[in-house]
Design a protein that fits this description.
InterPro entries: DUF5688. The protein is an alpha+beta fold. It has a six-stranded antiparallel sheet with strand order 8-9-11-10-12-13, with helices on both faces. Strands 4, 5, 6 and 7 form a four-stranded antiparallel sheet that branches. The longest helix is centred in the first third of the chain and has 17 residues. The chain starts with a helix and ends in a 13-residue tail after the last strand.
Length: 304
């Protein structure tokens, strides 16, 4: 069965199971770095809530022999669980006052997401863009978020300046930052408690490790760490989830570091999770972050 035939079959079969009281729509959902997924939105008539189920992996499983009926059962269960387990009344999204304490931001690459950014309120930061979303809490399946679009702002009667201010206030509270040495991170991962004293690399992320590269914009996070190290910092964009901090005492080769970042992006980081091929420099004296003065290629050059 061809992919588009599979998508149509899933929608039609679920329509039969759910009955006339539901509207099912298949649409392409833009993701980070120019990627996209096919989603099936299910909306009960009279409701403004429409959970979206991604179908790309379902087709792969179907090709590998999973029966269509089993996939349909699983999709229906996911839909019902998403409604039953939502830790937030989604109808409250209609009210600006309800969403204000839940506005947060994450960082994405501006050039690689130029089409997506046409529909999203955003703030340019170096070669990146600060984009906004609502944090709706988490359950055993992971975090629940809603990406904020220009249509949301219009509905809430909110401008970009207000949105950005709310996100600046909320994000460090909702997602506190933490800095670990590479040795500490490996020890935590291995549950061995081992530490590598004096290792020059440190990982900056938030406590849940999701979209943690945004932490490098938290007020004084880099300044306090630079003061602790008594040095300027090189900031290496490991992924959208974390950055690496390297004390810079004038002995770093920025061009080699940029080549290393680009190589790791190309070979080890999933395309959707790549942040930048550039390396950033933080000045302890000025408190400013800038792009290292070397020439690098666009992030797309690292795509598979």
């Amino acid at each position: 069965m061809l992919y588009h035939t599979f998508l149509s079959a899933v929608r039609q079969q679920l329509e039969k199971r759910l009955g006339d009281g539901y509207v099912l729509t298949i649409h392409r959902i833009p993701r980070n770095n120019g990627l996209s997924l096919d989603g099936l939105s299910i909306c009960e008539k009279g409701s403004r809530v429409a959970p979206t189920l991604y179908l790309n992996s379902c087709y792969q499983r179907f090709q590998n022999g999973t029966p269509l009926e089993q996939l349909l059962d699983e999709l229906l269960n996911l839909y019902r669980q998403s409604l039953a387990n939502t830790p937030f009344d989604l109808n409250l999204l209609e009210r600006a006052e309800s969403v204000r304490p839940r506005v947060a931001y994450r960082l994405i690459n501006a050039q690689s997401n130029r089409e997506l950014l046409k529909t999203l309120p955003h703030v340019p930061v170096l070669d990146l863009a600060k984009v906004f979303y609502l944090d709706l809490g988490a359950d055993e399946r992971g975090a629940m978020t809603v990406r904020i679009t220009s249509a949301h702002l219009a509905h809430w009667g909110m401008d970009l300046e207000t949105l950005s201010r709310l996100a600046d206030e909320n994000t460090p509270r909702l997602f506190p930052a933490r800095i670990l040495s590479i040795g500490e991170a490996l020890g935590e991962l291995m549950r061995s408690g081992r530490r590598e004293a004096g290792h020059p690399l440190y990982i900056l992320s938030n406590q849940n490790g999701i979209s943690g590269a945004a932490c490098m914009l938290y007020t004084d996070i880099l300044k306090d760490f630079a003061d602790r190290m008594k040095a300027n910092l090189v900031v290496l964009p490991s992924s959208i989830h974390e950055v690496l901090l390297l004390p810079d005492r004038g002995d770093q080769n920025y061009e080699e570091l940029c080549l290393t970042v680009a190589s790791i992006n190309r070979t080890e980081v999933d395309p959707e999770e790549r942040l930048s091929n550039n390396v950033y420099l933080f000045s302890r004296s000025t408190g400013r972050l800038r792009i290292a003065p070397v020439v690098t290629g666009p992030l797309q050059a690292c795509s598979d």
